[in-house]
Amino acid sequence: MSSKVITFTPSKPKGPVFRSNDPTRSEIDDEKSIQDLKDSILKHEEFRARAESTPDATYMRFLVARKFDIHKATEMLLGHFRWLDEVKPEQITAEDVKSEALKKVAFYSGKDKSGRKILVLIPARHIVKTAIPEETERYTIYFLYNSCLEFTKTATSMADFGITLIYDRTDFSMGKNFDLQLTGKLMPLLQNQFPEFLGSCYIVEVNVLFYTLYKMVSVFMDSRTHSKINVLKGDYKAALTQIADKDELLEQHGGTKKEDDLPTYPSYSN
Length: 270
Hints:
It contains eleven helices and five strands. By secondary structure, the chain is α/β, with parallel strands linked by helices.
């Protein structure tokens, strides 16, 4: 009498749950929401491959952005997958964006006390008259896409995902540096394709006009976005050293780092 051999294949062990950092939600809540969103996306056959390869951190970002409404998060993530198929940001290379990167309008200076990367943005270095819109947009997409990939590899929860932005308005001129076309593209890009990229924002070197305009615009912001933005007046250097150690900040922000010692993003040898 022959016996039938049964092969047992152990299930793939689950890793730690990527947490929402929402104190009202348990680990089980977060795990269930991620699985529910995955199951919802997997119903769309054309995106099955993307759905299966998408990390939990990405699912959680879209869930948080839509306040854990599975239907709304599904529509948002499907839109993101369509955008990825159309734009193909993974095909943009460092060489493609070199001219924009070397302007150092945006670069990382270090990490804040929570472990988030500090992104320094100096819009005065963006000269609208000489800028090539297509190149600026390409670099913006490259920067956001690859930064999110890096964060996804290291973050364990929404608490350590994303960036702390220092928006430095030194020498900023509305006529010379304000790019309405870029701003119009950047806002929906951040909201729809890279939700929760911004952890917190500190705006420095503000004048009366900017502050007045900000107060007017801020009433239209949702409470979550508004809570992330801090307009620092007066001695902003002291305020910045409360969120990051001095060796993580530039000299002009109250730290000890020299900008010339920092690489561009991406880094270049020349």
